[in-house]
User: Fold these one by one.
Assistant:
Number 1:
Amino acid sequence: MDSLLHNIAVGMATAFTPSNIMYCALGVTIGNFVGVLPGIGALAAISMLFPLTFYLEPATALIFLGGIWYGTAYGGSTASILLNLPGTPSSAVTCLDGYPMARQGRAGVALYMTAVASFVGASLGIVLMMGLTMPLVALAKNFRSPEFFSLMILGLLSASMVGSGSPLRSVAMVVLGVLLGLVGTDMYTGDARYVFGIDRLSDGFSLVALAMGLFGVSEIVANASETHRADVGRAPRLREMIPSRAEVGQSVGPTLRGSVIGSFFGVMPGVGASVASFLSYSLERRIARDPSRFGNGAIEGVVAPEAANNAADQTAFIPTLALGIPGSATMALMLGVLLIHGITPGPQVIEQHPEVFWGLIFSFWLGNFLLLVLNIPLIGLWVRILAIPQNVLFPAVLVFMCIGVYTINFSTFEVALMIGIGIFGYVLRQLEFPLAPMLLGFVLGPLMEEHFRRAMILSRGSFDIFVTRPISLLFVICSLLAIAVGIRSIVRQRLAAA
Amino acid sequence: MTGGGAGPAPAPPGRERDPAVQNRVSNIAAAGVVGAIGLFAGIYALNGLELGQLRRMGPGYFPLVLSAMLVALAIAILVAPPAGRLRFQAGEALTILAIVASAGVFCLSIERLGLAPAVALTSLVFCAADRSMPWRQKLFITAILVVITVVVFNLLLGVQVKAVQWEF
């Protein structure tokens, strides 16, 4: 109890400094804005702003990028409700009932209740983060290289099997990402690998150039031809946002159930906010007395998925910070922040740098409160911004990417590398390869190799070590289950194609 | 980006591609990319790196395992049901050209002319490819970008790049 109080004090002291409050507010506002824009996602925005964090303390950097991450979930629902265009994938399901509500003149109520449900979901997620992370860290202290290696395999496999698209292509991208992560100097022997005599590559590919190339460049290419103006109508007035007593009553249960579902799926690698929002929507429809209301503006169909995706966005930090295993590409970038500041991700981070973890937790409280308060007044501004054609934004995006990548080492090589990776990423995207698993593999690649080599030294070259240790065996079994899920989906596709 | 000319050109009559053929082409191309990278990485590891043994791995061991996995995955992709069809679009190719050209201009100008001119040139070259945007708007966006980047990077973050310089 004393240690919890101490941690809370450390967290508050870190989160509530003027500079961290400012970066938290800036992060959530940018996140909210990016979430509203249907073109740019959280991943692209975080990739682009990543270089700015080199100039910040690690805790401040995470507070800033974390704010963008969960801010997008609030903003994403605004575009879903007003435009029927999901600003983020996890808000897609909100369109189903949010947009009909807007067409019935109830946009104000939908937006208000969404903000409240998001806050409730996020709060449950943060409470779980505070409660679950320390026991998980205590468990992970017993982990040695075999456990870490099999856990990474499980994380990467489930991230590629559960996501949409072809599991084979996802796994191929993970492996390619791991391979790209090995470029540079071998840590054991000092030998240069895949460097081709280029000095700049001896430290490996830069995470920023890779992330911006893969997500920034391809976002520009995919969205730059969108020149249409969105027809958003007018922003709802404050008076129209007050829900009726019946609507509040209908929202309580779905919000709480959505929060629980979201918190659970957020922790699992690869599943995350999108799956959680879909599942909570379908649960509400299944248990509703009158399912025909769904799709026609049922408030339950708006609040449940929004509570779920916000809860999932928070709990996604649990495996990332407690174990050093990111469940998504965005979380991999969060680990990248730690790596760049010389902090090795893993269970030891929370003990060695309590200010980073607990500061982040308290910034979550602050950020979500700010979003709850800001979301409503900002809607008028977002509506006006949505009316601007998107192509106006892309010169700015490109310029920020170029400056961001250049300032890492003040080298134009990184800019060229980013563009080269961007073109490669574009080709891969055209061939239906998902790009997020590649980034996940890239971040985990060097750690995976290190743990694999250590495990093999420990076991004198025997693979038994992965199945004779109970926790590692559990991860291996779960990995096999993930592979089975992938094979089943391939067989189903095959049968459907036949 | 391409303005009025955006979108794929309609295929001339009689030359429309069969979707099934396109699906196969997509799979073959996907398998080709993955397989080629796998083979290249494998040959590099075999020739240029020490493999060692499983109990004491050299720098080439893990990359060789990965390259073998990539080749196996390429074969699996080849025989798996198609995941989609090729959909290269002329408009997107033009956007890529604009990105390459403007990033090239950025690389050439940032160290010689400084931040403000580099940003202006990058933005103008990128905007030039957008035929739907009037020039007044292009100049307006560029001017705003120059102001924002100089304020954010030079004044607020103190990045060590001069706003304007002349080094030839």
Number 2:
Amino acid sequence: MTGMPTLNSFPGSNSDTTVDADVIVIGAGPAGMSAAIGITRAGLKVIVLDMQPAPGGQIFRSLESNLQARPATNKLLHALGPTYLDGQALIEQFRSTPGIDYRPQTTVWDLRADATVGWLQGDAAGYLRARQVVVANGAMERPVPFPGWTLPGVMTAGAVQTLLKAGRLQPGGRVVLVGTGPLILLLADQLRRLGIRPSLIGRTDTFKDKIAAVGSLKISAFSPLVKGLGWLTKLKLAGITMRTGVSDLRAHGRDKVESVSLSIDGRKVELGCDLLVVHDGIVPATDIAHCAGLAMDWQTDDSSWQPRTTEDGRAEMVPGPGLTGGPCKIRVSGDARRIGGADAAIAHGRYVAACIAADLHKNSTTGGMIAVGDDVVRTLAGRPFIDKAFPRGLATQALEDNTIICRCEELTAGDIRTAIGNGVTDMNHLRGTLRCGMGPCQGRSCAVTVARLLAESAGANTPALFRARPPLRPLPLIALANLSGLDPELAQVVSLGDKPEAEAMEQPHE
Amino acid sequence: MDECLFRQSVEAVPTLSTAGNCATLYLAGMGMFTPVGAFEAAITIFFDDRPIPARPGETVAACLLRANTPAFRTTPVTGAARLPYCMIGHCFECLVEIDGIGNKQACLQIVNEGMKVCTQKGAATVIGASQ
């Protein structure tokens, strides 16, 4: 680190001499592990930051410890099945690749286009810099508001899977599953293997969706299709009630969910319930990409945002003022880029690693460009079929005025509609007016629905997300006070645009 | 549909947050989550001063759900009870106070011997309520 902070110096001009690693990978799931292995094998220095205590991501969550705990976990591993055990080889490879600087239980709360990453581990926090960053923070389940969705006892299918894998816990009492997508069927089959019989699997998708999807059926979709049909057959043979064409979901109860009502092909049904498991497909986790100021594309068919990337994962900055200037040194890989599942994430992570190696080694034969591999194309080819066969359902349910949209600030669809009626036209204005998206989750749960409500009145305008600002997650004051890795370059603020009076922070450390 | 079904009234909160009522709720009925196979507790954490057996390596959220905890937090606006929703760090519904520091995501925190966890009542306070 040299010299005084020069607020107007060109960002990144001395970056290669002050970096902590060649590449920082955010996330140790399939894409992150695969990318880190490839980058390290190319002779480059990698730091991997991951929120969880062990590698695997959500799909292979706690796989290592569950394997180590055998035979006590035999029943659990049998229930989770081959999809889960498949992760073992990749995790072993990740662990045995020498040189990967793997930092578990480390959350990322800031990312800048110049490849600066803010991290938090316990009560320690700081900044790290690299020549490139790979964002591989995976996916999240599409948040779906319906009456009663904030009641204790309403959970996502992914949450129940996490409790199985990492908590070694299974649901008790009366379980109802509602939604769509492969995950809900996989979970239902896993519960069946544990001897749990959901009172109902209510699916929002219909047979018509399957007919419509046939046109998108590629050979690469056959294997997941066979898997899915296998789950369906076993659930049917087990006599578990499954209905399609479900709508109008509501959870009832006072301090917890007590019953669930829904319509099956127009007929209203109410049933007692201790745990309502919902799932409406998965969407990329955009929090980190968005914080970095990356351009996001709204997917109309899917009602979700996707970071705008080239095939090799290279992201681009949203036009206009940003917190960091200079070229964008961020790539996005795996489900965080495009939902494709573990195999697609592994293939894309590997491809991104090859591209980064070519880029940073300035390989003259390839000129930094590597053609996309067959495996990347093949593993993503089955996706259009799945998207068509399981279209989002709960997320298309009409929003009643008293349904909570912003879970943190407890704002209802009615509150938001009133604000829109009073002239609010964009998400930032809405946040400023109502605090919608200002709570601890920072809009992760409400942004998609708020976009939907704004579109109700504004017509077909592409909704822009809440402007994201670090820290993305709560930082303890002690961590902030002892922040490490502060570099004068980091204090650069090209322009905040919306707050022209804001000044670049002075360097607080000696 | 009656709105109070979805938005718990503020008056209902004290009945949830007093230790005595919690204890009866813990004992009542079958747990929402039970261990798959045998459960071997090796350590103890405390939730609102009540000892809870825990397995090293598990998350605070998993531990509290196994203990049939009726609410991890109450909301700052209406005081409604909340339990974890996503379990992977996105929804922030599982916020608790851990060793005096609020706004900790129970689904991301791993249990430690003697860890003191408290229900987060409303917004996090700067100085923990347990101190």
